[in-house]
Amino acid sequence: MEDRSAKYRAFYAQLICAAARAVDPRIEEAFRTVRREPFVGPGPWSISLGGHPYVVTPDDDPAFLYQNALLALDSARGLNIGMPGAHAYWLGGCAVKQGETVIQIGAGSGYYTAILAHLVGPGGRVHAYEIDERLAGLARDNLKYIAHVEVHDRSGIASDLPAADVIYVCAGAAQPATEWLDALRPGGRLVFPLAPEGMLGGMLMITRPDEGAVWPAKFLGRAQFIGCAGLQDADAARRLAEAFAGGWDGVQSLRREGTPDETCWFAGEGWWLSTAPAPVVTDSIRPHADITQA
Length: 294
What we know:
Layout: H1 2-19, H2 25-33, H3 37-40, E1 46-48, E2 55-56, E3 70-74, E4 79-81, H4 84-94, E5 101-105, H5 111-120, E6 125-129, H6 133-142, E7 149-152, E8 164-169, H7 178-183, E9 184-194, E10 201-207, E11 214-223, H8 234-245, E12 253-255, E13 264-268, E14 271-274
Parallel strand pairs: 5-6, 5-8, 6-7, 8-9
Antiparallel strand pairs: 1-2, 1-3, 3-4, 9-10, 10-11, 11-12, 12-14, 13-14
Helix pairs in contact: 1-2, 2-5
Organism: Bradyrhizobium betae
Family: Belongs to the methyltransferase superfamily. L-isoaspartyl/D-aspartyl protein methyltransferase family.
Protein name: Protein-L-isoaspartate O-methyltransferase
């Protein structure tokens, strides 16, 4: 069965990285290397293409796992292992490097934690936070053989987060947590779904400059996730829906001070997104609007 799984993984990795336009060969290598079977549990499995009902596989053939599709961890709650093509694209956007320290918020059963661990290599570190006790236990068991991964069974919104080069969030939020911004090292990237629960928002990447309150920011594409506990806001969700309806790919910076001006795309408490560029411009990556479900 392992030979068949390896064959499926090789094709799946090539297919999703082609769809994600991934230029870093390490991303394809990571998806080809990391098996999905331990992270989803025994079959049959419930699979969805996102925004559609789950379909139960006829049996436990691992071929069903290696699709560009959502794999249910808890179909009743809508908890999934996210769409691999979307994650491949977002991981390419934040350019995770070997030796970096990554914080993952919302680790689930640990599949994308393992992908991140492959990307940073043994010289790097991945801190995975999962607030759901059952999922955190699964993640810890699934990842116990990867020495440079540490699973934390608590909220990832905390003042004691380690300093990080990348913060990769897998739960939708109405705002970036101040704790995430503070944990970033200069040059560090925060990638999170600006998408309160139940809303199609966007995957926003914010880069911390060496100094100053104007940070480069851009949407990598549309996204929808289960909500991040503690970062939900019904009024912000309503206003965000209106902002996305009027366009979203012109955002160029996050402002952490000053009064929002005519360039403001969306304003939160103590922060706002602007269509004006930051003093330091990040590498260009084209938004990918047809990758939505995570």
